Amino acid sequence: MSVAPISSEHLTRLFHAAAEVVEQRDLHEVLLTIMTTARELTGASHAAIGVVGTHGGLRDFLHTGLDEKTVESIGNHPVGVGLLGAITDTTGVTRLERAADHSQAAGYPDGHPAMGSFIGVALRAGDRVFGNLYLTDKEGGFDEADELTVAALAAVGGAAASTAELRERLGELALTEDRERIARDVHDGVIQDIFAIGLGLQNAATRSSGEDLRSQVGNAVVKLNDCIGSLRSVIYDLRHSVRPSDFATEISDLIEE
After folding, report:
1. Distances, alpha carbon 199 to alpha carbons 86, 187, 223, in Å
2. Radius of gyration over alpha carbons of the chain, in Å?
């Protein structure tokens, strides 16, 4: 069977779509962009991505094309059984004239409309599957060009998803290391200074009196004020290490402090 040619216009749209996928930095946004662009490029009426969980089922389900009333009537999202789960273990693209024709099709839950033409593909990076892309109900059915389009998006999407996940993990690691650094600063600096001041006050209370005692207490107060300043600085670093900020927010925070 010969493959239907892809027009130069369609190829250009595919390149732009792939670039848009790669530009996303958040894993959720990567998957969302793959789903919406795949629907636009193929002309599918409905599109969805099932996010694969640790144990192989679907832990999340993104979709577009169904109205809110239908979504409410369906209820809970799919968990990855039947045809939707089979895509996880399938290499290449699955294309069907009717979704119900697949050997592992499990039927539809109450309230779910029957689906006609179907394309499904796993989003992979090496052996890792991040999710499955599902497209249904294209008028006239999907063709070989749609299959090539979806395969290309899945390849780009798998790499983009892997990169986005790695970026998120590095961000979490950096945040953890930053928290550990701040904890060390508190322990090694502020707490030890306060402890030393406490020892000095205890010594002054037992050995000094009159003006000498007042002088040592005054010095301790100055040192405690310095410690408070250091502690405020540490708290400020901690607050700003856990959330992004802009200039206006930082000024507002400083005024509040």
Report:
1. 69, 17, 13
2. 30
For residue 188, what are its two tokens? 């090694």
Q: Sorting pLDDT into bands at 50, 70 and 90, what band is 1? A: very low
Decide: residue 131, CB within 10 A, 0-12 exposed, 13-18 middle, 19+ buried. Answer: buried
Which residues are CB-neighbours of 83 under 8 A, at least 6 positions away? 99, 102, 104, 105, 106, 118, 120
Q: Which pLDDT tens digit goes with each residue over 90-146?
A: 888 999 998 888 877 767 767 677 788 999 999 988 888 888 999 999 999 999 989
CB-based contact 145:3 (threshold 8 Å): yes
Q: What would the two tokens of residue 29 be?
A: 């946004």
Distance CA 11, CA 17 (A): 10
Instruction: Report if pTM > 0.70.
Output: no
The CA-to-CA distance between both ends of the chain, in Å, stands at 72
Over residues 149-179, the pLDDT tens digits come to 899 888 888 888 888 888 888 777 777 777 7
* HSE (side-chain half, CA atoms, 13 Å) at 80: 22
Which runs of E-coded beta strand occur in 74-225? 94-96, 118-125, 128-138
